[in-house]
Amino acid sequence: MRAALALALSATLLLAACGDDSGSSDAEEYAETPAKDILEDAIDAMEELESVRMSGSVVEDGEELDLDVLVSTGGACEGSIGIEDQGSIELIHVDGVSYFKADEEFWRSQAGGAADQLMSMAGDRWLTDSSDPDGFGELCDLDNFIDALEEGPEGDLEVDGTEEVDGTDAVKLSFTSDDGNDGVAFIAASDPHRILGFDVEDEGDVEFTDFDDDLDVEKPAADDTFDLASLG
User: Is the pTM of this model over 0.85?
Assistant: First the structure.
């Protein structure tokens, strides 16, 4: 079970978006801007955000993760992660502590013969681990993603035309991932030049939406939680 949770934490930087080729005159004009300046504009725009939703699929260690999480600069988050052929979990992170609820498929794939016992003990309570309370903290902190952006891509960054992403005109920036795969970032052509997503070959595709949506996550009551550390 811990291995599956670790896979979810790795999803932070593997993001993407998609759309049909188009591009307004404004987008084409913005596409004349040097790639490094477009990236700087995008970083500035993302730094202004308090929260954003990340949704889509990423691949980690050969397994596909379906991600749908609203994250914030304050480190709070809520959402879900599905693990290919291993079930899914609902998660929240608040006040530096992670909590999750798992479906039956997850328990059976991770706990084997102990699944029924664990499901009975956990019931419908939120699960946490006092030996590693931060859990999903890395995934849930938008600032971690901003920091990675500031480090820049591994390879050359180039403007690669325009595209429409969910009705928004965007400029495409091509790059090479840390694993050597071709990637494309989609940057809103109009101010604020937010990142609409990334598409990385063989690594995944997730988009950014719900910019600055309210995120009101409350810590579960003590009698509504179960500490996995108590299992030894």
Answer: no
